[in-house]
Design brief:
about 25% strand, alpha+beta, Alpha-Beta Plaits, about 300 residues
Length: about 300
């Protein structure tokens, strides 16, 4: 029998680019059915309030392919609004959650609405409110949900103070490169912490960037200081002070009884007021001294 000729490949128009915002409630199923209903209803109202406070009420009213689940919410918006979706919207979302907390606590003392948030961008079908079943279906939507469910963003929220940090956001590498590093977002890139997202069961590996509007730690330490040396990510004088040189030993390579000297990393914070060298004795093999400088 003669074989049928293969159909010629044809090109298709690229769907319009859409920024995608997805949110999910922490520990949603741990609440009673009644409280789940309260949280599910509240999540849409706090999102709307955050958009209004960000002067994005028109964007909210014109949101594309909204998807509402019991424990989350997803929307698409035109990509030119992507920078505002990150800042100031995420900060205003934290504020809206703070304002909502007293009414939730009045119902039950430990009832909280804390959110994971993910943001990505890419081509997605959009029939402009005509309700096409293909609207929003595509890789950008899938990746947004993978980032939302990823271990780094879950762990960041879990380790934070539940009364202080009410949301943790993760943006895709593409969003970070084009909007944050591109200079369109009104935040220092230092406020974004890179993480590797690996979900082998989903065959998903992606670079993401965490952003926390109000960072905290359950033990009281500020993760901004831990990561970047200061609350704004530009370094802190408390770490060593101006005009100091700190020698920090690294762990020796080899057995625990090795007498080899470890390497040292020297951190310099420069001016001409003096020099400080960290002192002490480590494993009996390293000696240091402190040398004060000319302060006056």
């Amino acid at each position: 029998m003669p074989t049928q000729p293969r159909p010629l490949r044809t090109s298709s128009p690229l769907p319009p680019y859409r920024a995608v915002l997805a949110v999910d409630i922490e520990s949603y199923t741990g609440n009673s059915s009644y409280h789940q209903q309260i949280l599910s209803t509240t999540i849409e109202s706090v999102l709307e309030e955050a958009f209004i406070r960000s002067d994005l009420q028109d964007v909210w009213q014109d949101r594309r392919f909204p998807q509402r689940a019991g424990d989350g919410y997803v929307i698409g918006i035109p990509p030119e609004n992507l920078p505002f979706l990150i800042h100031p919207m995420l900060n205003h979302l934290q504020e809206a959650l703070e304002d909502t907390q007293p009414s939730l606590a009045a119902r039950q003392r430990d009832l909280r609405l804390r959110l994971r948030v993910s943001i990505d961008v890419g081509p997605l079908p959009d029939s402009t409110h005509q309700g096409d079943p293909l609207d929003g279906i595509g890789r950008a939507m899938n990746d947004t949900h993978r980032l939302l469910d990823s271990p780094p963003v879950r762990e960041e929220l879990r380790l934070s103070d539940p009364d202080t940090t009410l949301l943790v956001a993760i943006v895709s590498g593409r969003v970070h490169e084009e909007a944050v590093l591109g200079g369109y977002v009104g935040l220092s890139p230092r406020r974004f912490h890179p993480v590797d997202v690996e979900m082998p069961e989903k065959r998903f590996r992606h670079e993401g960037y965490l952003y926390v509007p109000v960072p905290s730690r359950r033990g009281g330490a500020d993760p901004r200081t831990e990561r970047a040396g200061g609350p704004d990510g530009h370094g802190s004088a408390e770490a060593g002070g101006a005009g100091s040189e700190v020698a920090v030993p690294r762990r020796p390579v080899g057995s625990a009884g090795s007498s080899a000297l470890p390497e040292q990393t020297t951190n310099r914070i420069g001016d001409n007021h003096g020099q400080a060298i960290q002192g002490g004795t480590i494993n009996g093999g390293i000696h240091g001294a402190f040398r004060g400088g000319n302060d006056g």
